[in-house]
Amino acid sequence: MLRSILILIISLLTIPVANAKQLAITLDDAPRKADGYFDGPTRAKTLIENLEKHKIGQVTFFATTQSLNQEGLERIGTYNKAGHIIGNHTHSHPNFLETELSVYQSDFLQAHHLLQQFDNFKPYFRFPYLREGETIEKRDGMRNLLQKNNYQNAYITLNNYDWYIEELFQAAVKVGKPVDMERLSKFYVDVLMASINYYDDMASKYLGRSPKHVLLLHEMDITALFIGDLARRLQREGWEIISLQEAYQDPIAKYQLDQPIKYNPGRIGEIALAKGQKKNLWHYTLDESYLEKRFNQEVLLMSDH
């Protein structure tokens, strides 16, 4: 009898975990320019400390190898040694819309060879700007090259403009505008959660379920500062953070959009587009003027306060 009660209690305790929505965290553009609020080593140290403090687990950094000077090498080395995955984000971050296929392929391969030095390098490729080729020739040319080199297309499902929040923050720091860091954290987390929930709702509409998601972030100062605050909010709202490898076990990892598109909203947006949704494939928070207005209102400390 006691055994049965214990089993029942254990099963009840595990239900929330089993039903948790799941996402993997990825950070693009590493080692990204760092000459504002933090320098590169301080950003890396802060980010690693907050990932460990909040028990976030393994994340994936997508590296652009043209930034691997001595400091950049050390920064990626820090992430690598901490057990995080290093993926390919090209050598020079080209815009595929403005780049010939052969040039783009060479850029990808250059990064591929340079990234072999990291023990935790894995063959995941994140297209810069999420642009996968606007013609059949370019799209299929990269699909074939990825397949030849045993790469996974490192698609995302949860899109946002975190990079623009960083730009607003760094611009304020540069000219000495007072920034309320608590408000900045709240603004950052609120904006990200709004887009996360939007794309999860879109997934439920078209898939009938919440898939294993992939969150797009960037290797930036605000990420280092507030990744723990984001993780706490995710946990409160029923999310579980998983590895990228686990996320790509979801069936949508095998999905491929038939027609080439110029601008890619992410895998969930692709699926919605294929099922007939033409508008609102990007959440309303993915808008620079919207974010700037909220940043000025909610984050900057006004002189008359």
Verbal overview:
With 305 residues, the protein is α/β, with parallel strands linked by helices. It has one domain (20-298): TIM Barrel (Alpha-Beta Barrel). The protein is 49% helix and 12% strand. It has 11 helices and 7 strands. It has helices at residues 2-18, 40-53, 70-81, 101-114, 136-148, 162-174, 181-207, 221-236, 244-247, 267-274, 288-298, and strands at residues 21-30, 60-63, 85-88, 121-125, 152-153, 212-218, 239-242. Strands 1, 2, 3, 4, 5, 6 and 7 form a 7-stranded parallel sheet that branches. Strand 1 (21-30), helix 2 (40-53) and strand 2 (60-63) form a beta-alpha-beta unit. The longest helix has 27 residues, at 181-207. It is globular. Mean pLDDT is 94; it is low at 4-18. InterPro entries: Glyco_hydro/deAcase_b/a-brl (IPR011330), NODB_dom (IPR002509), Polysacc_deacetylase_ArnD (IPR050248). This is Polysaccharide deacetylase family protein. Keywords: Hydrolase, Metal-binding, Signal. It holds the Pfam family Polysacc_deac_1. Residues 1-20 form the signal peptide.
